[in-house]
Each structure stands twice: as C-alpha cells, then as structure tokens.
Amino acid sequence: MKLRLSLTGLLAMLVAISTQATTLKLSPDIDLLVLDGHKISGSLLKGAEGLELERGQHQFLFRVEKNLQKGPQQNEIWLSAPMIVTFTTVHARSVAIQLPSLTSPSLRKAFNKNADFQLVDEKGTLIESQRDRLNTAGSIDFEQAMVIYNLKGNVASVARFARQPKPGAAANGSPDDLASSQHPGGRLLYLWYQQVDSATRQRFMVLMQALRTS
C-alpha cells in the first residue's frame, strides 16, 4: 500500500481516536519512562500536563523524581525505583497517579518496596490496577527491561506489550516528510501533527511505520 494513497483515511482515523481518549495526567514529580511497551521521549513530554490514551488496557513504567530541600541553599534529587502499573480505562475521562507522602527517608523506602500508589479518575474514584516495581539489576534500557518483565507473566505483565518490531521494520521517513508532500492530505496531516499531544504523535508514527512496511 502506498503511503500517499492512505493519508486522508489515516487522518480521519486518528481524529476519531482522539475523540475517544482518556487523559493520563502527569505531575511534575512523575518521570514517565515506557508506555505500552514503547520508550517515551523526554522531549515529547517537555511541558506536557498529560497524555491522551485510547480507552482500553494500558501499562506504563514511571519513577518519581522529587526535589528534596536539605537546607536553605542545598537541594537533592531523589529518584524512586521504577514502578509499573497496568490498568484498563472504560469510562474515565482522566487518570491520575496518586502518590503517598514521601517526606521522610522511611516513607520513601517503603514506597520503593511496596509500590504504594493509586490511580484515580477525574472524580477521585479509585481505578483498579495491578502494580509492581521493576528490578532493573543495573539495566538502563527500560524498554528492553519491560519486554523481559512482560514475558515472565508477573503481576502487572501484559504479554502483547512484549512484542518487538522486526529488524528493519522502522520507517526511514519522519513527520517532516509530510510538509514537503505533493499530496494535499500530507500537508494537512503535517499541520494536524504539530497541534496534537505526544501520545497521539507516537500512535501516528506507529501507523506510519506500518503503512511504509505494508
């Protein structure tokens, strides 16, 4: 299938997805690392207050990055262990991570050990979830670490998020290619891409890759 023949239909599909989304709210203390098996780019999240997710099952890996004031002019950054949460959204318009108090070393140690956090919707109602912590064993490749975690059938594992793209399946192009496209739909898609949130951009790129390799 040629990419240029699919642009208009792709735009319509992505717009439809956006109208049925759930917003994952991100607080300044939350460092989102992997979403649904894919590494999240820090540049995409810069300044973002939330991500739009399709309604359904999701899994993300995050850690807490907290600025601790040790003295009048002395700060220290505390990073929690990487935490995993798997959940399913059906009717919720938004999902937020509710953290416990992390004001003392003992509370932070307990958080790292027990993954003591909750998910709540826009009404403050608890969303059922499976929570765990990721034992990275020194690994810094969080995406690959989540592949291994999901293959093991752990408490918060989702087997389908362990699937990896075949070698050479990545697209060679980029969204900027649309700006110079001779197809009117391509230029329209480019303008749309500049305005949507990072999660929708990532879904768009996955679809672009699928079209280019089909």
Please describe the structure with a list of short key phrases separated by commas or semicolons.
alpha+beta; five-stranded mixed β-sheet; 11 strands; globular
What sort of overall outline do the alpha carbons produce when their principal axes are compared?
globular
SSE string: HEEEHEEEEEHEEEHHHH
Unreliable stretches covering 5 or more consecutive residues: 15-19, 165-173
Helix content: 25-40%
DSSP strand tally: 11
The averaged pLDDT comes out at: 77
Strand pairing plus helix content: what structural class?
alpha+beta
The description of the largest β-sheet is: 6 strands, antiparallel
Distance between the termini: 6 Å
Number of helical segments? 7
Strand content: 25-35%
Provide a descriptive summary of the structure in words.
- This protein is an alpha+beta fold and 214 residues long.
- It has a domain at 23-169.
- It has seven helices and eleven strands.
- It has helices at 7-18, 42-45, 105-114, 142-151, 176-179, 184-193, 198-212, and strands spanning 21-25, 30-35, 38-39, 50-54, 57-71, 74-79, 83-88, 94-98, 118-121, 126-127, 129-133.
- The strands form two sheets. Strands 2, 3, 5, 6, 7 and 11 form a six-stranded antiparallel beta sheet that branches. It has a five-stranded mixed beta sheet with strand order 4-1-8-9-10.
- A hairpin with a 2-residue loop joins β5 and β6.
- The longest helix has 15 residues, at 198-212.
- The chain is globular and about 55 Å long.
- The N and C termini lie close together (6 Å).
- The model is unreliable at 15-19 and 165-173 (pLDDT under 50).
